[in-house]
Amino acid sequence: MSRLIINNSNGRLCNAIVKNLVQTKYTQNRNYCSLQKKQPSSQPSQLPPLPLKSSKPNMMEIVTHFFDKVKKKSFIIDNHLNDQSGLEQQLLNRDIKYNTENDKDNIQQIKLLDPLNNLGIRKGNEIFKVVENDLTNMTNSIMKTITDGVSANSTYSPAPLKKTHPILSSISSYYFELKGKRIRPTIVLLLAKALSPTVHGSQLKLAEVVEMIHTASLVHDDVIDEASTRRDVVSINHSYTNKLAILCGDYLLARASVVLSTIRNPDVTECMSTALAELVEGEFMQAKSNGAVSFDNYLQKTYLKTGSLITNSCRSAAILSGADSNIINISTEFGKNLGLAFQIIDDLLDYTGSAEECGKATSVDLTLGLATAPVLYATQEFPQLEKLIKRKFSEIGDVEEAKRLVALSKGIEKTRNLAIEYCNRAIQSLLKLPQSESRDLLITLSHTVVTRTK
């Protein structure tokens, strides 16, 4: 088939494929679920006509051209739900003022939205109490899924099919037994409660899928980063070996896919499959980083690695609640902005947090050659950092020098303000939803995302 297309020996086949391409469109935001059939719209197509060299075009050129155009149109930090043209660039270029040139203590901070007047009053523990039973059921179901498998006709509690290899079962259960933050399934469950009177079984399954995908990504991350600890314990790759850790991560993704299939909703399947693909793309983008000093690259990687899973899980939760398209889009926008805020704070904690608080090693991004927001902002004041970024902090003394210059710069403050900006936009989306206890707890959760120390 590939030779047939490349050699262009069948004009009718080419024309049929071209016609099919023209009849489809790529959504402006890839996390809104990949390719969709074109719907009637008053807006003209965002993609220009494909240039055809002859009546029998080379299909490889057509497909390449098509997806090149898609990529240019699909930068994931888009504004197509709200008229916020250029806001991201304004945030990135924001000049944070000092009362005196060297007085960082008097920095003009961006204020965190507090529509409920509950900052410093409501505690993060309240959030998890509301969904505590659901989280417990989710964890138990995941453990059963890992150990026994899941049948195609099972309800929320999987029916046993066969026993998993005991070593594979033990490794795969390792992180779930530690019960980490579980922020992602908590977001799914609270949003589900905010959009409908009861949480549906399909939404409980969605929370399970999200946590399994996230945990699998942690297992693979630890192999890639050669991490030695995770959640205050020895990481899986150090406890067992890289080979077994990789197989464990693959197994978790496979089991998550089986649970996802039992939800039996093609839109949700497409959303979560897109999130998984983009997670891998983000990892690949990071691994193949060429030391570019670019906020665009940083935000794109941040969205792909972290934001996409939260975005698509929020969208899926709204779809499963039976909400209309407006509520689905509001939920998606909330997830996108909260996901970005979460990862930006994570990058900040790599500079400001302690290993004891974070439950993992800190100051590792520079060691891995990664330029995140604090050092990118610091480059605006200390251009000599660009040289270090381009060589990925690979020479002796580079990491220490970068940390020193970040500490002297406004990079930490600017990074925190950027996270607060995205958090505020997430809260603004939540305020468009009907008032409820669960919605208000999501606002509190948004606060904890940017004020956390681990």
UniProtKB/TrEMBL annotation:
Coiled coil: none annotated. Keywords: Isoprene biosynthesis, Magnesium, Metal-binding, Transferase. One of its GO terms (molecular function) is metal ion binding. Residues 35-55 are annotated as: Disordered. One of its GO terms (cellular component) is transferase complex. GO terms for biological process: isoprenoid biosynthetic process; ubiquinone biosynthetic process. Residues 35-45 have a biased composition (Low complexity). The keyword Transferase applies. It holds the Pfam family polyprenyl_synt. Its cofactor is Mg(2+). It comes from the Eukaryota. Belongs to the FPP/GGPP synthase family. This is Uncharacterized protein.
